[in-house]
């Protein structure tokens, strides 16, 4: 018998070496605080906004003396509060939804929804680029079948639904539920889903109204739609979505998420979503920070940040378009709609990211398995707090690297 702990460590090390060999070993990094942020999801720069800080501190001060800062348990035990319930009502009203249920993170929200709501016999149809947390929830789900469709492709969704309704008449007859899982803005490419077209296809192919959309608005929250309310509200499709997930850890400078849904679904999740039931609920400081962000949204205070971000996006886009790119395998820009997320695709993303980091710009190389093989990139996120000078500096660094790389290639 060998030494079991040593054996385990050996196999862990071997797994890490495999990742190393494939150039995809993940590491925790801390970049200098002086580095310019072109990476985080703090799109509105709310986390450093004086207005947000002041509002948050006000909320903390308003709490009566001895008000517990810890939640003290699961929402179902001691972790519930009038403050949490009032916040859910406030957010649901802002998003024009019947009700909402807070989760500790977007990850927990997606795991809770997908693992508990689809029933045996049901079908989940999901966009191939849906977030890992939705996959985790689907993996735990009792749904009979999960089928992916090509990213944001109405034709592919249509083909999948046609195949499934033909194969199983109960789907067409409305005796099985079909869940359509999408994001409104995708985290890696920043593209906006064609939700309206998807709704049309579902109406046509599932006329018995058994098609239920679950849309994750993580990257749209605060940035897209009127007062940052999201893509669904911008399209006026609130009533057509069964569930909307908004997360607070990105543009809202906080933590946690809300599942917007009807009262029955909320009640069901309280009873069956294990990622809600078996975990300590958000404590008062987090609830207060979420409240602060939503108050600023609701009062229209963040609209000027949305506008400034929009101007920076247009500026960066124009400057990127002006780059002289000879070889698109070395460098290619992918940018969709008016998203603050830019994908700088490259076959050497680590090299490009490292040059930018050395010059004081925080950007990150995104490698498989986070993105499919062949889709490696440097992901650049713009923020309302970035300046034109910072963008110019990043652009000059990219142009310098591009020039050097192309010169090296022609010498070979
Ligand atoms: C689309 C999407 N959904 C859900 C999540 C998870 O949200 P959270 O970070 O709040 O767990 C993320 C990112 O982390 C995301 O990009």
From TrEMBL:
Protein family (similarity comment): Belongs to the class-II pyridoxal-phosphate-dependent aminotransferase family. BioF subfamily.
Aminotransferase class I/classII large domain mapped to chain residues: 36-398
Co-factor requirement: pyridoxal 5'-phosphate
Protein name: 8-amino-7-oxononanoate synthase
UniProt keyword annotation of NADP present: no
Pfam families named among the record's database cross-references: Aminotran_1_2 (PF00155)
GO annotation, biological process: biotin biosynthetic process
Molecular function GO terms recorded: pyridoxal phosphate binding; transferase activity
Organism: Aspergillus mulundensis
Sorted UniProt keywords: Pyridoxal phosphate, Transferase
């Amino acid at each position: 018998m060998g030494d079991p702990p040593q054996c385990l460590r050996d196999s862990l090390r071997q797994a890490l070496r495999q990742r190393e060999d494939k150039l995809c070993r993940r590491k925790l990094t801390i970049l200098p605080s002086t580095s310019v942020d072109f990476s985080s999801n703090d799109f509105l720069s709310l986390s450093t906004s004086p207005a947000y800080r002041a509002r948050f501190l006000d909320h903390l001060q308003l709490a009566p003396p001895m008000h517990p800062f810890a939640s003290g348990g699961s929402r179902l035990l001691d972790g519930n509060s009038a403050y949490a319930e009032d916040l859910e009502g406030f957010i649901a009203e802002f998003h024009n939804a019947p009700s909402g249920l807070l989760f500790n993170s977007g990850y927990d929200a997606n795991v809770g929804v997908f693992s508990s709501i689809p029933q045996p016999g049901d079908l989940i149809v999901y966009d191939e680029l849906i977030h890992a947390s939705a996959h985790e929830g689907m993996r735990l789900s009792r749904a009979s079948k999960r089928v992916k469709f090509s990213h944001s492709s109405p034709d592919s969704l249509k083909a999948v639904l046609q195949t499934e309704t033909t194969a199983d008449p109960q789907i067409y007859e409305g005796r099985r539920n079909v869940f359509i899982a999408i994001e409104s803005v995708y985290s890696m490419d920043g593209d906006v889903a064609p939700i309206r077209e998807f709704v049309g296809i579902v109406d046509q192919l599932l006329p018995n109204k058994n098609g239920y959309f679950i849309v994750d608005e993580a990257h749209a929250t605060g940035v897209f739609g009127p007062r940052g309310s999201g893509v669904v509200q911008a399209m006026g499709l609130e009533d057509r979505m069964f569930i909307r997930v908004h997360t607070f850890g990105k543009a809202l400078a906080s933590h946690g998420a809300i599942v917007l849904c009807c009262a029955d679904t909320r009640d069901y999740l309280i009873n069956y979503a294990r990622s809600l039931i078996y975990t300590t609920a958000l404590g008062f400081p987090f609830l207060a920070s979420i409240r602060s962000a939503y108050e600023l949204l609701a009062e229209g205070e963040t609209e000027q940040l949305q506008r400034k971000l929009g101007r920076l996006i247009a500026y960066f886009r124009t400057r990127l378009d002006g780059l002289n790119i000879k070889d698109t395998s070395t460098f290619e820009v992918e940018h969709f709609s008016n998203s603050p997320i830019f994908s700088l695709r490259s076959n050497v993303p680590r090299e490009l990211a490292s040059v930018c980091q050395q010059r004081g710009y925080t950007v990150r190389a995104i490698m498989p398995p986070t993105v499919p093989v062949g889709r490696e990139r440097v992901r650049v996120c713009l923020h309302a707090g970035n300046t034109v000078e910072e963008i110019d500096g990043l652009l000059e660094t990219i142009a310098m690297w591009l020039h050097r790389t192309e010169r090296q290639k022609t010498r070979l």
